Amino acid sequence: MAGLSPDQVASFQENGYLVLPDYLNPSEIESLLTETNTLLNDFSLESHPLTQFTTGDDDEADHVGDDYFLSSGDKIRFFFEPDAFTSELDPLTGRPALLKPKNLAVNKIGHSLHTLSPPFKAVSLTERNAAVARSLGFQDPRVLQSMVILKQPSIGGAVPSHRDSEFLYTNPPSAVGWWYALQDAGPGNATLGMWKGSHKGRKGGHITRRFVRKCDDAGTEFVENIGPSLPMGMEEDKVGEPGDEDLEILNIKAGSLVLIHGNVLHKSEKNTSPRSRYAYTFHVIEGADGWEYDKRNWLQPPEEGFSKLS
Questions:
Q1: CA separation (Å) from 174 to 44, 131, 138, 263, 287?
Q2: Which of 154, 253, 270, 290 measures 20 to 30 Å from 81, CA to CA?
Q3: What is the residue-averaged pLDDT of the chain?
Q4: What phi, psi does 218 have (nearest 5°)?
Q5: 131 membership: H or E segment, kind and range
Q6: How many domains does the chain have?
């Protein structure tokens, strides 16, 4: 199966991202939305630790890092929006109380939908995706960290500017994100904001920090990256740091696939609109000899290793 065209590869290499409209057909979109809603409705609150998702990028909030999160790499688990809870404990349960029904309070579902959910597996581990990965130069593409990101109406939390290889570091960096819009994402409902060209070897394009497990798996933290900061073969580019003029707020129709370079700077704002913004995403890393997945990464591979895409 054919992968990307030379023009598409060139665009990805120049900008650090590429939007592919209509990558999913309407029946695939409906299947994934139905599965998402089923998962949201069926999980039990009684046994849930009520783990809230936050990277702690504001230097005040704690980084997510309990066992429920750290052991989710080969499971389907549910992580709540911090703004979905009251500030007081429920007097009957002694636990934080939700302000909204649970299906409207979840931030994301992860992190192995591509292996444990048939509808998500059907659009993830495909020859089409393998062909795209080969177009981008992957020799042994491996899939990991699959999740539905749920920007719930009025409370969907912001994702600060970051680079994906900070979270899924290989030596040298190799991560590429596959981001599927399950609903329209545009200005006003927390769509993606991408800094064009910010993946290149500019001062800001390097992977200078990493999101890792603390010693003894006692949570997570950001640490300085002392390993390679650019993908193999990427040359230093002295153009300068990206500025506001490089920021593009994407307008993405449901069914589109956005490919996201692991070194490109991107973000999304809080969803203050009455419209939800659901997206399915996973990442691909290089599994071939010459690249090493770091043992300090927050997500560690299952015994059988990460899923082969080819």
A1: 37, 17, 9, 9, 9
A2: 253
A3: 92
A4: -95, 55
A5: helix 127-135
A6: 1
